[in-house]
Specification:
By secondary structure, the chain is α/β, with parallel strands linked by helices. 37% of the residues lie in helices and 15% in strands.
């Protein structure tokens, strides 16, 4: 595979060819990228979504034409178990989640999707194992929101003290998976993601909001932008998740998926605005108060990720932003200042 910057990588994902792979939450932002990567590797991917709008997103996403799509409400335990038994996947990628969108605030729904459904899927996988598959049975996608908000350098041993409903329910799901793995019944891991960006993000997120403001010539109110985050290109994340699916991770292990580089929100915004040819006067930094529970962390360790896969996401901010603009049919317009 090739990164947006043209760097050739050896993904070692040939093991997926001809294998059944189940993608839960396939119509979401990262789910579509994982589905695309699996199909590109020759997997027999079954893409699961719970709504007609999700099915439409899958049918119009590049590289998914003709893919098998199945509807399923993962909060329905019987339907979820029946789905797993019917598909009998060699590997499952769980990208289903509730609460990333600020409008999703229902506590019962968050724990139903982010916690209970994880246990249901794991139990069904135990009963439907593919004995000929030597990789992980499930790669569950977690979140940096599961960690404590310390601002300190971060590895997988860091304190888990989430301050948000999303973080608490995701952490409970991570622990449900780990419990089943420790019992020796399941091979699985949790991949914790950080600030993933790229084509397919929800409209409320930072980059789509910038594109919309640039298109309309409207000002965009922003925080001071001093937060330093690990911005990770979506295509890199999908490739890494596939690599982790073939890894020798310990049962129930948590692995951070990140670049290991921090970039301020202000720098990210300014680079994107440059590519969009956006007037800097439209960027109103400091007019939005930082949310009290925004995740803050120091440099994210990729030591364990590199030990398991041999690499870590390497696409630069400039490469990722340029590729996103290309996806939207937008050409890089401005001259980039040295970062």
């Amino acid at each position: 595979m090739t990164s947006p910057g043209g760097q050739r990588r050896d993904p070692g994902n040939i093991a997926y060819r001809g294998r059944r792979a189940l993608v839960l939450g396939a119509s979401g932002f990262i789910g579509r990228w994982v589905a695309q990567a699996l199909i590109r590797e020759g997997a027999l991917a079954c893409l699961v979504t719970r709504s007609p709008s999700g099915e439409q997103r899958l049918r119009t996403w590049p590289g998914l034409r003709g893919a098998e799509i199945r509807p399923c409400d993962l909060t329905d335990a019987a339907a979820t178990a029946a789905l797993v038994h019917a598909v009998r996947p060699a590997i499952t990628f769980n990208l289903a989640g509730h609460g990333i969108d600020p409008a999703e605030k229902d506590e019962a729904a968050a724990f139903a999707v982010n916690t209970t459904a994880v246990g249901t899927v794991c139990d069904a996988l135990v009963a439907s194992a593919d004995d000929g598959w030597s990789g992980q049975a499930i790669v569950h996608v977690g979140s940096s929101a599961e960690y404590a908000r310390t601002g300190e350098p971060l590895d997988e041993r860091a304190a888990e003290e989430p301050e948000t409903l999303y973080g608490r329910s995701k952490l409970a799901g991570t622990r449900a998976l780990a419990e089943r793995c420790r019992e020796g019944r399941l091979r699985g891991l949790t991949a914790r993601l950080f600030m993933v960006y790229g084509p397919g993000e929800r409209d409320h997120r930072l980059f789509p909001s910038l594109i919309r403001a640039a298109d309309r010539g409207e000002p965009m109110e922003l925080s001071a932008g001093t937060q330093r985050l690990d911005f990770t290109w979506a295509g890199d994340v999908a490739e890494t998740l596939l690599q982790l699916g073939l890894s020798a991770a310990e049962p129930g292990e948590v692995v951070n998926v990140a670049t290991g580089r921090l970039t301020s929100v202000r720098t990210f915004v300014e680079v994107a605005a440059t590519g969009l040819g956006m007037d800097r006067a439209l960027l109103r930094f400091g007019e939005v108060t930082e949310r009290p529970h925004d995740v803050r962390y120091g440099t994210v360790s990729t030591v364990r990720l590199r030990a398991l896969t041999g690499n870590a996401p390497a696409t630069t901010i400039v490469e990722g932003i340029r590729a996103t603009l290309d996806h939207h049919g937008l050409h890089w317009k401005g001259r980039l200042r040295p970062l």
